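Service request form, structural biology core

Requester: graduate student, group of Dr. S.
Request type: structure prediction, single chain
Budget code: on file
Notes: please return the result as structure tokens.

Sequence provided:
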Amino acid sequence: MSGLATRPAEERGDFGIRGVRPEVRLAPVRRWRARAYMMAADATSAAACLWLVSALFFDTPITRGHLGVATAVLLCFFACAGLYAATGSSAIERLRLRTMATAAFSAILFVGIGTPAISNIAAFATLFAALTIGGYYAEFLAAHLLYRRGLSPATAVVVGNGPKVEALVRELMRRPVLGLRPVALLTPVSRDDEPSPTAGFAGLPNVASFDALDEPVDVVIAVGRSSLMALHQLTRNRVQELASTIVLADDATEQSLWLATRSLGMVTGIETHNTHRLDRSPLLKRAMDIVLATAAAIPAAILTLLAATAVKIVDPGPAFYEQRRMGRNGRPIHVLKVRTMYTDSDRRLAEHLNAFPEARKDWEHRFKLADDPRILPVVGSLLRKSSIDELPQIWNVLRGDMSMVGPRPFPDYHLERFDEEFKALRMSVPPGLTGFWQVSTRSEGDLEAQKADDLFYIRNRSLWLDLYILLQTPPAVLTGMGAK
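Core staff response, request fulfilled:
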């Protein structure tokens, strides 16, 4: 680094970025290790699903040789779909690619059997579902293992400075599912500045050179047009040597899925694809709600009965309570919940907030308390963390008051803290039993985080986003992520 710092800027080739040379090293070994982990997870899941479905639906389970061939072919489908690309992609896009590749594989396998009997149709429908869901969770576990080992997701250097950089880094670090792991910052400086890097943000180094990084990078993110121009100068217009370059849009927008660029002469336009949007096919969303709610009704009823019994044992009084919430288009709905609080919860809350001013600030900021005096001991906390108290709302889904996925229906005192424009937008879609907030921020976020999560869902709602939220809900519930 000292050698780079002492040479003239033109000789170093930085042209406005501290000491960075145009050569950007990539990481073939790390990439292939990450790919090997992901492929091993897919192969294990696929082999298990193929053997299980063949054992359930056919007289003779699939042979070892055929199992190996079928698994290898499926991995080829995944590779062609881009699931093992080095530059990373969001979990929602990966779910779409996985589902489409699995559907193509299952269809070809079904046609190859050549006997379209009802039993075979059921077998291959089951196989498709098992391969998609099993593969998703296998990837989920492998991704977490890779992340802990520093192998995945794709590494990224962020070029730029200011609040936008800090917000971007926070978002990437808070949500590994976005597919990029920031490892360093590069701050554009004037040609006359001394190359003395300052302390980084969020534990990331502000490096003077790509050579100073502990590991090569996969993606460079330029925050704004000025950073992109600096990046071009850095590489002497050889940006193509990087694995991938991402330019952060100057203006923030909640709609970020299903976008594509389009050349409009000398300018670039951003095109939104609406073919994925569920509001274009409300019957599909309603059909999905009915199927899922019907399938979940019996196990939910059993868990609800056990929960209600536990509540009655801990605290006398009704095991359920009904609360008025706002549904779609402002229509009032009444949601049913298993009681998790004392019957005099309002009095307990008022006394607690009066006694502890810090708790009042926390309540006004998030409508959540770290030590809530209203919650029943043990049972109440368990029901809330596991979301079992929300299961009676499956009845609201069957009635059509709610959807399986959507913004959660907040109480009036919570909803009134938002501005009128956002409340109107929120009520333009049906409320959900689970939602993007539940699988991302949940109780850990304040009102602004809740608003941001709901806006993201509303602007980007689609079949794939709904499926992603549904698949992410069990891990969020099992880990009690952010629940209070």
